[in-house]
Design goal:
Low-confidence stretches: none
Distance between the termini: 47 Å
Mean pLDDT: 89
């Protein structure tokens, strides 16, 4: 079984410790199977490095190239991939059981904008004092939100009690 690379990234030059390798030269031409020492000497003769491309092949595939340039290209690809990925945030909207109609509409618009941006929305309904005795009112408010947001969202977490508040999480469809 071929040895795995010991550190992060591919092995280079003298770190390649297998007796035979399959060599690809700097122009991308297949040179065939040869001893590792000969492959390293060929790489040094053109002023480049010998890089292990496929360590799990039999024999391992190595290529003659500039290792510094290779590392730079890899870093550039990684940064490009990081730029393209979207981090999903959880935005929180706080409501009360006896929320006024205008306040409700403002919160609804905010939730819709968060969902359109691709973020999750955590709706927190807070009970104070004697409101705890009327949790059914709170459930009605959350059900109304769920009904109004139903076109763009799905419920990731159904309404549930956490201490003195009821929590529901909505995600974009």
């Amino acid at each position: 079984m071929p040895a795995q690379p010991s550190r992060d990234g591919p092995r280079v030059n003298e770190e390649i410790r297998v007796p035979q390798v399959r060599l690809i030269d700097q122009d991308g031409e297949m040179q065939g199977v040869m001893s590792t020492r000969d492959a390293i000497l060929r790489a040094y003769s053109v002023g480049l490095d010998l890089l292990e491309i496929s360590p799990n092949a039999e024999p391992p595939v190595v290529k003659i190239l500039d290792f510094g340039k290779f590392k730079y290209e890899q870093q550039k690809k990684k940064n490009e991939a990081r730029k393209k990925q979207k981090v999903i945030e959880i935005k929180e909207i706080k409501v009360r059981p006896n929320i006024d109609e205008n306040d409700y509409q403002v919160k609804l618009r905010a939730m819709k904008s968060f969902i359109e941006e691709g973020d999750k929305v955590k709706v927190t309904l807070r009970f104070r004092g004697r409101e705890m005795a009327h949790q059914d009112i709170g459930i009605k408010v959350l059900e109304r939100i769920r009904g109004d947001m139903d076109a763009q969202t799905k419920v990731e977490q159904m309404p549930r009690m956490e201490n003195r508040q009821m929590v529901m999480v909505l995600t974009p469809r």
